[in-house]
Amino acid sequence: MDKKQHIAIFTTASIPWLTGTSVNPLFRAAYLAKDGRMKVTLVVPWLPLIDQEHLFPNNITFNSHLEQENYVRQWVEERTGFASNFSIRFYPGKFSLDIRSILALGDITVVIPDDEADIAVLEEPEHLTWYHHGKRWKKKFRMVVGIVHTNYWEIVKRERNILVALLIKYINGWVVDIYCHKVIRLSAATQDLPRSVVCNVHGVNPKFLEIGLKTREKQQIRNQAFSKGVYYIGKKLWNKGYKELLDLLRDHQKELSGFEIDLYGSGEDSAQIDVEAKKLELAVRAHPGRDHADPLFHDYKVLLNPSTTDVVCTTSAEALAMGKIVVCANHPSNEFFMQFPNCRTYDDGDGFVKAILKALADEPAPLTDAQRHELSWEAATERFLRAAELDTVPTKKQSKTSSAPLSLASLSLTRKLEDASALVHFVGTGFLSSQPDEEQCKELGLKVPPKKTGFSSGKWI
Predict the structure, then answer these.
(1) Could you give all domains of the chain from N- to C-terminal order, each with its CATH number?
(2) Which intervals hold domain Glycosyl transferase family (predicted)?
């Protein structure tokens, strides 16, 4: 190529909020930029101060987006060990208490200039397009790739009801079909979507691989590298695996006599979870949440992760990278981990008991160099480039002409149907979407949008 193509990675969260959709896209941007084949821009939400105070840990807040950018760069450089050679841009956002997520405000495609609009990666494409009211992603960018992080269908089904879940499932498929050329599902635990492939394109924070190397060295010097038994780490929400965990422990207390486990996490359901844990006859100790890389966790031998709502569980990947045994459900969300000998799965309660007892009796197999690479962000970046098929992206906008009349007629009909569907979505979001306030726009150097007076004042783009 005469010039490098631009790839803009849009995501729904940002450091210092330590959630999967802030951490993983940040590492993706860092390693794609390090790869050097493309110019990379990470696009993240900028929140009002009141939302920062509610969301960010340890009372961290920023008076400007430049302060937050410096914090983000320092965070990722400390973990990767190399300079972050990518751009960071911000779009206006707000935190929704109802869905516990950040929502974009206005048309966030304007953050990327038209002459840089080559490839867009939408991390959580359904989330980024539910309320999108602006330029069509496919019109703005020559290629739009969605990466599905969250099993919204399963979460909504558990928290609300099946009818609401079915509606969300339909809307997800609808908006992704309108706005994405290609979709990557991190695991088969997510709903099937148009033009999608299943591939885990996430890696592990390099710090965990470094811990794993030290563990392997200990194992080579002496047979036993771990002095502690079983733990679980995860946000204290019932849908993060705690219900499954406490149910399994309650149902098999006799078979697991003498079993001990430490739970690490904080969250809205902490009080209820701790109360239920104390009812068990087993030794279940509850602790506040901690960073998984904390030295406190180095000596644990077994991570027990019963969650089936994750798409690909980050903590399981981190535990494997540290050289631990991971005991988890035989579920599509864990399929990537099953290639590693230290991953032990179970199908039912009896299998759960057997897997736990065997894990406690065994020593983890030392990770090979090939296994360590498979967990790394270098390998994840290779998988992403293959799955996204970015080598097929045209260097210019696709021509609307074709030499095959039948193909042209079929393509024309498809475009008309998609245009009609997109118009319906545009009209609907004209009433549902929110616009950024003047202060946010000035902070980010964006035009202040006119106040909405109904669709008649809008413009179909």
Answers:
(1) 6-203+382-388 (3.40.50), 206-375 (3.40.50.2000)
(2) 219-335
Residue 105 pLDDT > 80: yes
> What is the percentage of the chain residues whose pLDDT exceeds 90?
62
Cα(301)–Cα(318) distance, integer angstroms: 13
Mean pLDDT value across residues 389-408: 57
Token pair in block for residue 249: 């422990």
CA angle 167, 168, 172 (to 5 degrees): 120
Q: How many other β-carbons are positioned within 10 Å of the β-carbon of residue 450?
A: 9
**Position 322 pLDDT exceeds 80:** yes
Task: Give me the helix-helix angle, 162-179 and 405-432, nearest 10°.
Answer: 130
Q: Which residues contact 72 (CB under 8 A, 6 or more apart)?
A: 14, 15, 26, 44, 88
Alpha helices in 81-161 (DSSP H): 125-129, 137-140, 152-159
Q: Is the dihedral of CA 196, 372, 9, 60 positive or negative?
A: positive
For residue 458, what pLDDT is reported? 39
pTM for the full predicted model: 0.88
- The pLDDT tens digits for 18-67 are 888 999 999 999 999 999 989 999 999 999 999 999 889 889 999 999 99
Quote the strand ranges of 169-299, DSSP E: 182-185, 196-198, 228-233, 260-264, 283-287
Q: Rounded distance, CA 303 to CA 142, Å? A: 43
C-alpha distances in Å from residue 249, one per residue of 284, 356, 363: 9, 11, 23
Specify the pairing of strand 101-104 against strand 87-96. antiparallel
